[in-house]
Design brief:
This protein has helices spanning 4-18, 39-46, 127-130, 141-149, 155-160, 170-180, 193-212; strands spanning 22-28, 49-57, 60-66, 72-78, 83-86, 96-100, 105-110, 116-120, 253-257, 260-264. The chain is of the alpha+beta class and 270 residues long. Strands 5-7-6-1-2-3-4-8 form an 8-stranded antiparallel sheet. Strand 2 (49-57) and strand 3 (60-66) form a beta hairpin. The two termini are 29 Å apart. 39% of the residues are buried. It binds a DNA duplex (16 and 16 nucleotides) through residues 1-3, 6, 32, 59, 78-82, 110-116, 128, 151-154, 157, 160-162, 169-172, 216, 218-221, 238, 258-261.
Length: 270
DNA sequence: AATGGGACCTGCGCGC
DNA sequence: TGCGCGCAGGTCCCAT
């Protein structure tokens, strides 16, 4: 799943339901999500730990765990394209089920099997996080514009580049560009200072609105309670090829950019 | 260093 | 009905 708003939604929900809970055991039905160590080692290490904190970095969800001997470890999850985290879980086919006390499970489902689960002593040492760019909500307009002006890539590719800015994927890149009225295939450095500022504001606005509605449920994404997020109904572009633009009635176009489906309004976005 | 294309997976919808 | 193809919210690896 998904992008920053979806992971942020799950994080907020799981903080309410899981903080302080103990992981009694883990059921690994499919070991593919866990690749950095053996199933057995993973299970032994996680057993008996307590969830002390839950936070998000980019599109990754991170649990801070405290072991019985006071040792700290971090459970890092990336849902990639089709991962789901469900609590309380009820799926006997979940790839991984974390057993909490009273026999209640946290399920990790993942249809396409691209997701990842890692147990680490220090999440910050992971190369994935070391090269990750700033969070949109801690960045300011000036940083964004300055970094943008140094780049030659097409603006949509750059927004989806996690080392440039963290958390934005195909849907929110498209929606933010529409709101800012900037065409996705423009080269980043051709954006005026004013356009860059408008784009940054649009990113923050779109991500915030999506979080407020619990994310975009397209295909697999659901909230941790299994219910759909409400932002897909608010999409102005995504999956609307051939339909009229809400602003100018022109037909929304779809093209491929950097290997990804890319929607835009040929009239509104310049 | 930065950029773009293909690979990794499974399953769905479409056209023939 | 059935098959093959293209497509899907992400990221890594590799060639340029």
């Amino acid at each position: 799943m998904p992008e920053l708003p979806e992971i942020e939604t799950i994080k907020r929900e799981l903080k309410r339901t899981l903080l302080g809970k103990k992981i009694v055991g883990v059921l690994i039905r499919d070991c593919r999500p866990i690749q950095d160590q053996s199933k057995q080692k993973f299970a032994n290490r996680i057993k008996g730990t307590r969830i002390k904190a839950i936070f998000r970095r980019g599109k990754a969800l991170i649990f801070k765990l405290l072991g019985p001997k006071g040792n700290v470890s971090f459970l890092v999850m990336h849902l990639r394209m089709s991962g789901q985290l469900i609590y309380p879980g009820n799926n006997s086919k979940a790839r991984v089920s974390f057993r909490l006390s009273k026999g209640i499970y946290l399920d990790f489902n993942d249809q396409r099997c691209l997701g990842e689960i890692m147990l680490l002593d220090d999440w910050r040492q992971l190369p994935f996080f070391k090269r990750m760019g700033p969070e949109p909500f801690t960045m300011n307009n000036r940083d964004f514009s300055e970094r943008l002006s140094a780049r030659n890539a097409k603006i949509k590719s750059l927004l989806m580049n996690q080392s440039f800015i963290a958390g934005i994927g195909n849907i929110y890149a498209a929606e933010a560009l529409f709101k800012a009225k900037i065409a996705p295939f423009r080269k980043a450095q051709t954006l005026s200072h004013k356009e860059a500022g408008r784009l940054f504001k649009s990113i923050v606005a779109v991500l915030t609105a999506a979080i407020n509605r619990g994310g975009s449920s397209i295909d697999q994404y659901v909230r941790s309670n299994g219910k759909k997020g409400g932002y897909a109904q608010k999409h102005k572009l995504y999956d609307r090829e051939g339909k009229p633009c809400f602003l100018c009635q022109s037909r929304i176009k779809r093209t491929t950019l950097a290997g990804r489906g890319t929607y835009f309004c040929p009239r509104c976005q310049k």
